[in-house]
Amino acid sequence: MDFDLSKPQKLLKQSARDFLSRECKPERVRAAMATDTADDRALFTAAADQGWTSLIIPETYGGLGLGVVDLAVVAEEMGRACMPGPLFATIFASAAIVHAGTEEQKRKWLEPIAAGEMRATVALSNEFVLDAGVADLVLRFTDDGIEEVEGATFERTPAIDETRKLYRVDDRQSCLSEGRQDCLSSTIDIAAVALCAEMVGGMQWILDTTVAYAKTRQQFGRAIGSFQAVQHLCADMLLMTESARSATYNAAWEMTPLAVSIAKAYCSDAYREAANRGIQVHGGIGFTWEHDLHLYFRRAKASETMFGDATFHRERIASLVIDRQSSAAERSAEMLARSSSSK
User: Fold this and answer.
1) pLDDT of residue 340
2) How many CB atoms lie within 10 A of CB 13?
3) Apex CA 80: angle with CA 120 and CA 133, to 5°?
4) How far apart are the two ends of the chain, measured CA to CA in Å?
5) Is residue 31 in some structural domain?
6) Are residues 194 and 165 in the same domain?
7) In terms of domains, do 174 and 198 share one?
8) Between β-strands 218-219 and 222-223, what pairing exists: parallel, antiparallel or unpaired?
9) pLDDT tens digit sequence for 209-223
10) Fewest Cβ atoms closer than 10 Å to its Cβ: which of 47, 51, 224, 239?
């Protein structure tokens, strides 16, 4: 059994890394986050030209029709570059339309999203809606599927991660809806896997940057990387990064609620802890605004709670496992009862 990425997926990953290394440098990230919207329209358009807005959109609607693993490959590189703006929210919205939209809605919205002509987001509640202020389309779940939020105003709310602005939806109708559970759950699970992949990419950047710094930073006449205490911190970061990567790609491949919650529960804690250790190794410079490490620490904290924190997903795991065992026990009891009654 081959657990590695396929050759096309490796090429997609390298292409994404090359593109972001060229087009999404830290200076551009900082420039975007300094604006009111963190919206770099040229960067979004360039990413759409790469096909990233159409990754999971079926070919029937102008997309590439790829799978969640392919989405995770691109999302990992987006996280490594700490990519700003509404691309992630737009991918989330495209998943919602694919899974919950009517045929008319799919034809109306998916084609312009795939072409990079429409930016979109999903309001799971009236609070903390990603990039609603720059979205051309804001969706919410309903009991029948999804619908556009029309006639609402959007007010920016404080956010720890300024590369993605959060907004409050001022609308007379609540955006908080349980909706169709199958559509809502599958959509959020796809977004959670993409977010986990982003977190893995951020962890990899922190690890690479920290190890490089430990090799060159001199203290007491030697590189600090030669001290065992620093080596332990770097080893912890490597373990957390690779474990998060394994859990994430397994979730992208399986796409079961259990696998998704395992990945999100682990990544939520691991990204935060990797950022903590990176700051410890960097020492005083790690706390400064001039160093890029704080961008990733902020992204780690924001991503930790998005789509459920570790505690939420551990409870979900417990519920899934216990319910499964209970159902199996009930079926076994029924079979035994039938067997006994037939004797």
Assistant:
1) 47
2) 17
3) 25
4) 46
5) yes
6) no
7) no
8) antiparallel
9) 999 999 999 999 999
10) 239
Structure tokens that stand for 121 in this block: 């987001």
* DSSP result, 235-297: HHHHHHHHHHHHHHHHHHHH--HHHHHHHHHHHHHHHHHHHHHHHHHHGGGGGSTTSTHHHHH
Q: 221 in helix, strand or coil?
A: coil
Residue 7 burial (CB count, 10 A): 8
Per-residue DSSP letter, 298? H
Q: Which amino acid would we find at residue 280?
A: Q
Q: Write down the pLDDT at residue 173.
A: 64
Percent of the chain surpassing pLDDT 90: 83
Cα 102 to Cα 267: distance, rounded to the nearest angstrom: 33
Q: Are residues 145 and 221 in the same domain?
A: no
* Parent domain of 170: 7-179
Distance CA 108, CA 87 (A): 19
Q: What CATH number has the domain bearing residue 259?
A: 1.20.140.10
- In order, the DSSP letters of 117-182 are S--EEE-SSSSSEETTTT-SEEEEE-SSSEEE--S-EEEEE--S-TTS-EEEEE-SS-------HH
138 has pLDDT over 60: yes
The answer to whether 81 and 29 have CB atoms below 8 angstroms apart is yes
Q: Is 340 exposed, middle or buried (0-12, 13-18, 19+ CB in 10 A)?
A: exposed
Pair (154, 193) in one structural domain: no
Q: Does 175 lie in the same domain as 223?
A: no
Single-letter residue type at 165: K
The verdict on 230 and 287 lying in the same domain is yes
In a domain, 333, yes or no: no
Measured CA distances, 230 to 175, 203, 271 (Å): 47, 17, 18
